[in-house]
Amino acid sequence: MNNALKRGLAAALITIAGMSVALAHGFTLGELKIDHPWAKPTITGAKVGGGFMKITNEGKTDDRLLAVMVTPEIAGTVQLHEMKMENDVMKMREVEGGIAVPAGQTVELKPGALHVMFMEIPKPLVDGDKFKATLKFEKAGTVDVEFMVQKPKEGDMGHMNMGNGNMGNMGNMGNGNMGNMSGQKP
Question: Cα–Cα distance between 29 and 63 in angstroms, integer?
Fold first, then answer.
């Protein structure tokens, strides 16, 4: 092989290796594997944002995600939430006692289901940004992670169309009733 071809091949391999490292966005805490924490970009003026990830418990003991902590520059309050349909109405509420992570199973926090709710956000979450957070588990303890702000992949939104942080006509959040979440007028 000539030198130019060798250099080109070496550069390609380095690029591919770098891409796989960049795409590998996971964290480990004992038997818990936290895969790709991410947050959805928000629009200017939005006061809430959503965070998502997969948590795999490779151990033999159940655990529970109790809290996600961030600095006040990211959110004033963080809660663990669930969304589900009840009597044809989408409802969102805080998960009391945390999110169960059963032994030998994977729990996915995703749009339209279990998720992290960043509240009182002082500035928009911008696509491409990253921010640090600490996850607190009942048994495993705490682990520092990094959330990547990115647009959801096609199909990640379930049956909700939340646009770029626009949660539409959300009805009365005080009672957990999300009202019309299509982002369009009823």
Answer: 12
Determine, yes or no, domain membership for 10.
no
**Per-residue model confidence as pLDDT tens for the chain (186 residues):** 665 554 554 444 444 444 434 446 999 999 999 999 999 999 999 999 999 999 999 999 999 999 999 999 999 999 999 998 889 999 999 999 999 999 999 999 999 999 999 999 999 999 999 999 999 999 999 999 999 999 998 765 543 434 344 343 333 333 343 343 333 333
The domain total for the chain is 1
Residue 14 maps to a domain: no
Whole-model pTM? 0.73
- Rounded distance, CA 135 to CA 181, Å? 28
**HSE value, Cβ hemisphere, 13 Å, CA-based, for 145:** 30
13 within domain boundaries: no
The whole domain housing 74 covers 26-175
What CATH number is attached to the domain comprising 66? 2.60.40.1890
